[in-house]
Amino acid sequence: MSDDSFIREVDEELRSDKMQDFWKRYGKILIGGAIAVVLVTAGSRYYEYYTNQKAAEAGDAFISAVQLAEQGKHDEALTTLVELESNDSPAYKAMALMRGASELAAKGDVDEAIKKYDAVAANADADDTIKAIANLRAGLLLVDSGTVAQVEARVGPLSAPGAPFRASAREAIGLAHFKAGDLENAFKQYESLSKDVETPRALGQRVRIMLDLIASRGGPQIKP
Asked: Residue 172's domain spans which residues?
């Protein structure tokens, strides 16, 4: 045997011994790590499947509730919507609460409708736009059933410059003052809206009607 062959054999034996020693020391750790990776991957895939499945079921249930409402089966629709309110998806939960509140308001159960709108507005996981709409709808319902302070508590932050639905929020505050007989503050809201170039055209028409109504009741008038 040549010297080179002998050296190669010795190197191979050394590498084999080192490998066996390495495997004795770390083999279980490597196998455990590999198993952990497989379990994590499998768990992630299952969670993704489960989440998608639950979302699909929630979507079907919501559509079913809407169809029931359109068919005049409001109590059945509300039952389905109440079940959806416990859904893990913040979006479907908010949608169920919003639609449920609309159904309750249509039935005349304003207090319960407001509670649902308030629940959406208080949900930290809900979309900011949805929360704004919930506050606005609650405020509009309170124009007839609540106080000016209650209306302002819901829509006041929405009336600030740059806030979403600012014009509608100011209209709600104006309506609340008008309903309370406070023609002075009602006029201030509507006058401001009439001079705001960002006031939507449809709302602008209502503003002009309300300004005329305020004047007809002895309130302030826009100076020519």
From this structure: 144-224
